[in-house]
Amino acid sequence: MNSEMQIFNNSEFGALGVMMINGKAYFPATDCANILGYVKARNAIERHCKGALKQGILTNGGMQEKIFIPEGDLYRLIVRSNLPNAIRFESWVFDEVLPSIRKHGAYITPVTIDKILANPDFGIRLLTQLKEEQAKNFELAAQNEDLAIRLNESEMFWTIMKFNQHFNMRWDMKTCQCNGRAASAYSRRHGYEIQKCKTNDDRFEFTNSYAYEVLENLFLPKKSEG
């Protein structure tokens, strides 16, 4: 199993060591649970995290085992957190850290640049990883484009994310989750079909799509008559 630790820093959340395992990001479970305000971190991890695994890391006290979780499990911890800063943590991880990793093959910081300049071997490894990641991302972009075309072909059914982006609703992740549940309940109550769409997102394999009329009735302001 190929693994590599990367340290990310944030003024609010401190240092977060993310383990890259076979090209996928895994997050320190206990650290994340503590940041998100879980009083009993271990219980929260056991209850919500399906893909947790143990990984040995080198610390000041020697080699120690820590539990790491994939993106999907971190997402589940975030949406179940009651802390206001959970949204800011989600934004940092999913809008800044992960996109940078996927784009560059690494989280590029001034420290990383200094390491490249000081250690040519490190730079070679990083650039090799970058080339491999860019090849993967090129293929993924093509898949996403194909998925977008197929989704747009069905004008009668919209995902929550497509509706959010199209109408610039500015919903955050937690709001999208709540609105998805509302759309599902409304659809079942009024006899509307709910379709399943396969995604290319590591966090979830499928997402629901709803009749446009359902989303329009629930979330768009009614036009005044007369």
Give a topology summary.
Blueprint: E1 3-10, E2 14-21, E3 24-28, H1 29-35, H2 41-48, E4 53-59, E5 62-70, H3 71-79, H4 86-104, H5 110-118, H6 120-153, E6 157-159, H7 160-166, H8 173-190, E7 194-198, E8 206-211, H9 212-219
Antiparallel strand pairs: 1-2, 2-3, 3-5, 4-5, 6-8, 7-8
Fold and architecture overview:
- The structure is a single chain.
- The chain is an alpha+beta fold and 226 residues long.
- It folds into two domains: 3-108, no CATH class; 154-219, no CATH class.
- The protein is 53% helix and 23% strand.
- It contains nine helices and eight strands.
- The strands form two sheets. Strands 1-2-3-5-4 form a five-stranded antiparallel beta sheet.
- A hairpin with a 2-residue loop joins strand 4 and strand 5.
- Helix 5 (110-118) crosses helix 6.
- The protein is globular and about 60 Å long.
- The chain starts with a strand and ends in a 7-residue tail after the last helix.
- The model has no long low-confidence stretch (mean pLDDT 78).
Quaternary structure state of the chains depicted:
single chain
Q: What structural category arises from helix and sheet content?
A: alpha+beta
Mean pLDDT: 78
How helix-rich are the residues, as a percent range? 40-55%
Residue fraction in strands: 15-25%
* Main sheet strand line-up: 1-2-3-5-4
Largest sheet: 5 strands, antiparallel
How many helix segments?
A: 9
Cα shape: globular
User: What is the end-to-end distance?
Assistant: 67 Å
The topology string of helices and strands comes to EEEHHEEHHHHEHHEEH
Beta strands, count: 8
Low-confidence stretches: none
Total domain count: 2
Radius of gyration: 20 Å
